[in-house]
Amino acid sequence: MKNFALKCLSVIAAFILCFCCNSSYAAEQITSVKQLLQRQIGEKANEINYQLIESSNGKEVFEIEAKQGTLTLKGSSPVALCYAFHTYLREACHAMKTWSGKHLALPERWPDYVLKNQVTPYEYRYFLNVCTFGYTTPYWDWARWEKEIDWMALRGVNMPLATVASEAIAERVWLRMGLTKKEIREFFTAPAHLPWHRMGNLNKWDGPLSDEWQEDQIKMQHLIINRMRQLGMEPIAPAFAGFVPMAFAQQHPDIKFKHLKWGGFDEKYNAYVLPPDSPFFEEIGKLFIEEWEKEFGKNKFYLSDSFNEMELPIEKNDVEGKYKLLAQYGESIYRSIAAGNPDAVWVTQGWTFGYQHSFWDKKSLQALLSKVPDDKMIIVDLGNDYPKWVWKTEQTWKVHDGFYGKKWIFSYVPNFGGKTALTGDMQMYAFSSAEALHSSSCGNLIGFGSAPEGLENNEVIYELLADMGWRSQAIDLDKWLESYCKARYGAYPDAMKQAWSLLRNTAYSSLYSYPRFTWQTVTPDKRRVSKIDTSDDFMHAVELFLSCADNLKKSELYVNDAIELSAFYVAAKADKLYNKALKEDASGHAATAQKYLQQTIDLLLKTDRLLVSHPVYRLEEWVKLARNKGTTTAEKNAFEANSKRLITTWGGFQEDYAARFWSGLIKDYYIPRLKLYFSKGRNGIDRWEEKWINTPWHNTTKPYENPVNSAIGLVQQVKDI
């Protein structure tokens, strides 16, 4: 009897301990949500009741109730609670806070509202792209990262990519493998080009990195990972993909390394990759996981991409050899991750399977996946928007039968290079993922996401995609846009409704990889399709949008959107004039060409001056972040040059790929380059570009005193061009 009593007491004690631990964890989660909302709306966040509730069949769920001035948010995770607030803010308070500003005229008393049991159909909502860490975030400080993690949580993201400090961890691994620090540092690119280094596309370019950089990135990743975990997110960490420093290849001449090619770079910048049957593959992969977890703690998801836009050097007709090699690579990558953490899941980008669809036929992808357990792999089917618009093929998940039993995430790439042109297929975004969910051939679809290469653009697209991550049915865009505009601008007058109807059918009914004006590339880019919608309907949409200024200009977001749309309007008129200048120049009519060129420049200078009042479309912020990361004058100059190179000449044959529509870049890069092209110095453009990249830049543009009134005046002024 005594033993029985002791057992009972033991069980009760264990229950109490478990309950206390769970209660403490729940309190910490609610605290993390409350602190996030305090950063958004201040002390008013303390007027909200927060409750954690059970998930629904393993899927996250939230509820909202506001009654008699009391707001209660219920959610199955911190992210669910944050998304619940974002939903309430938009639908009940007609308010919004995002990258380019806020419209937060909150009432004193929480408006009545009821939303019961909205359940996401997805286990994971993924966000970010490997390339985002070059085109957007390479020089971010913690203040900017904190804002982005808040943004993600409010949009319901629970599976973000987290590749900061990859090189600091890799350096520790290569030191353990016998390389010197100098040999290792020569392997790395400069910060803005690191994504392509991580994917094996590029080595050394604009490098090396410094001790201070490596230490800063470790500190930054701790802040990022800790905050993500506090909010219940499951970050995806970097793993070994087989790429090795040249010094390592030289130390092991007996190994038959694959020397890959990418991007038009000289071979000295291209990657060496281990053969999959090398015992080093598992040894090095294990060290990567061990060193990462030693620094940042145990993790579940690890990203490894060995074939991004690169075909393996195989004999042309050796089909069976190709399948065998791919199977070996799949097995080696997985085993190298599992050796470091047996519970880890290999995550890989599915972009290249669609982009290089002729190489990745059914049997090739099946071979790669064949020796990896189904529950230990997730494919992020990155570009579901591009088969329709660019590749002219079927969506990759359909071609590959839902990825042959592997878990996968339905995703989009709404932006390439951080280009700022208005673009995106809203109708497709509003239904295509729901179609996949209900397809009998969707396989093991577990997530939804978006993977933009560049952030801070086309905000309407990302708000729409965030909502699709919580819906199993298509979104009614008419109703959704009304809610969006009321939250963003405070009202939805008839002219605004007409403007957005036209925007939906023009700029937001098309998607191209390279939307750029001709003046951004000097001459038409014959290698890439560079479409921007400048149709009469689009231009009329801008005019209708501006006609709402008197009623809506108290909204910061209306002002910013008015500046953006007007700048595109004026720049589109400049493009028409510039194409005339090119035509006249080609016909030998130099005087007429100069006349059109000067008219082009006059409009572009006005465009530049408009954009200096926009919160994110400015070179000034990009350069300031880069310089602030440097610890010496030389490093500050190097980081500035690297940041400017990425958005201009890039390297290889990627010139003008990023094509930012930014104040400062228009005035001080695009315009002087146009002038040079129409002068005797045309052949010296490459030298001029390099000099501009390496010369510290300072903003000299003065903003308009009243940018909205100036925008309206400029549109009227150029309307008939």
- Counting DSSP H or I runs of 4 or more residues, the number of helices is 28
N-C termini distance? 97 Å
Number of DSSP-assigned strands? 19
- Stretches where pLDDT is under 50 for at least 5 consecutive residues are 16-21
**Relative helix content:** 40-55%
Beta strand %: 5-15%
Q: Averaging pLDDT over every residue, what do you get?
A: 94
Largest sheet: 8 strands, parallel
Blueprint (SSEs and pairs):
Layout: H1 2-41, E1 48-52, E2 61-67, E3 70-75, H2 78-91, E4 96-98, E5 101-103, E6 113-119, E7 124-127, H3 132-135, H4 142-154, E8 159-160, H5 166-176, H6 181-185, H7 194-198, H8 211-230, E9 236-238, E10 243-244, H9 246-251, E11 258-259, E12 272-273, H10 279-296, E13 301-303, H11 319-340, E14 345-349, H12 351-355, H13 362-369, E15 377-381, H14 386-391, H15 396-399, E16 407-412, E17 424-425, H16 426-437, E18 444-450, H17 459-468, H18 477-489, H19 494-505, E19 509-510, H20 536-546, H21 549-552, H22 556-586, H23 590-611, H24 619-629, H25 633-646, H26 665-677, H27 685-694, H28 707-718
Parallel strand pairs: 1-3, 7-8, 7-18, 9-13, 13-14, 14-15, 15-16, 16-18
Antiparallel strand pairs: 2-3, 2-6, 4-5, 10-12, 11-12, 17-19
Helix pairs in contact: 1-2, 4-8, 5-10, 10-11, 11-13, 16-17, 19-20, 20-22, 22-23, 22-28, 23-26, 24-25, 26-27
